[in-house]
Write a structure and sequence with these properties.
The protein is mainly α and 228 residues long. The chain has ten helices and two strands, in the order ββαααααααααα.
């Protein structure tokens, strides 16, 4: 057998084929097209995402993550203190990408209602691309330890900042829309999260609620009288 065909369990390329981990390709948008995505730490994160998609976080063990990543328990504990730390890393990456995706989807020169619709559509598309991971973020994290709860607060603050930044454009100001208050941004984010969770839990598709979510956001964030 050629030497190149023999790889150790900790080889960064072991078990990686064009972004595949644990038999799944591009799980939740985490794996697809990521340069250097086969580094051991990233393979472990991607393996956790794949396991969450298959069986959920609560049923996932360190052994499952290691098996899917085709690496060793030693490598896992060199990178993460426990399963929760791996989840925190996954969700940190997932939410950062979500914020970038939503921010880039909004055209600040578009009509005010189109901007709100663009942001909601980007949220929905992101949630639909990784429903199991999103559901784990919404349902599992509140019951976890300090690090996970700290991440939840930090990410919520990042989403609040994103909403307030996106609402502070010339087009929105010209329509009589003032920058969104912190309280209203929390209401919007909380509503979208719960809508995501309930839709996924009921077996529905996020794309089916896009229009309703957009109309609700327009009514919440639009100028006085826009929701009547």
């Amino acid at each position: 057998m050629p030497r190149s065909a023999v790889r150790s369990a900790d080889d960064p390329k072991a078990g990686c084929t064009n972004g595949e981990v644990g038999g799944l390709r591009g799980v939740g948008g985490i794996l697809a097209g990521r340069p250097g995505g086969c580094a051991p730490r990233q393979r472990l994160i991607d393996a956790l995402a794949a396991s969450i998609t298959d069986v959920g976080y609560s049923a996932t063990t360190v052994a499952d993550i290691v098996r899917r990543a085709r690496t060793s328990r030693r490598t896992f504990y060199e990178n993460f203190s426990d399963r929760e730390a791996c989840l925190v890393a996954l969700l940190t990456d997932t939410n950062r990408r979500a914020i970038d995706t939503i921010s880039e989807a909004v055209d600040p020169a578009a009509p005010w209602d189109a901007q709100i619709r663009q942001a909601v559509q980007a949220w929905i598309a992101n949630a639909e691309s990784q429903p199991a991971v999103m559901l784990s973020w919404i349902r599992d994290v509140p019951a976890l330890g300090l690090a996970a709860r700290r991440l939840q607060r930090e990410v919520t603050e990042s989403f609040i900042t994103m909403v307030r930044t996106l609402s502070d454009t010339e087009e929105l100001r010209a329509a009589g829309i003032v920058p969104v208050s912190r309280q209203r941004a929390i209401m919007l984010i909380g509503g979208l999260r719960e809508l995501t969770a309930m839709t996924v839990e009921s077996g529905g598709r996020m794309s089916d609620v896009t229009d309703e979510a957009a109309e609700a956001a327009i009514a919440l964030l639009g100028p006085p009288g826009s929701g009547t």
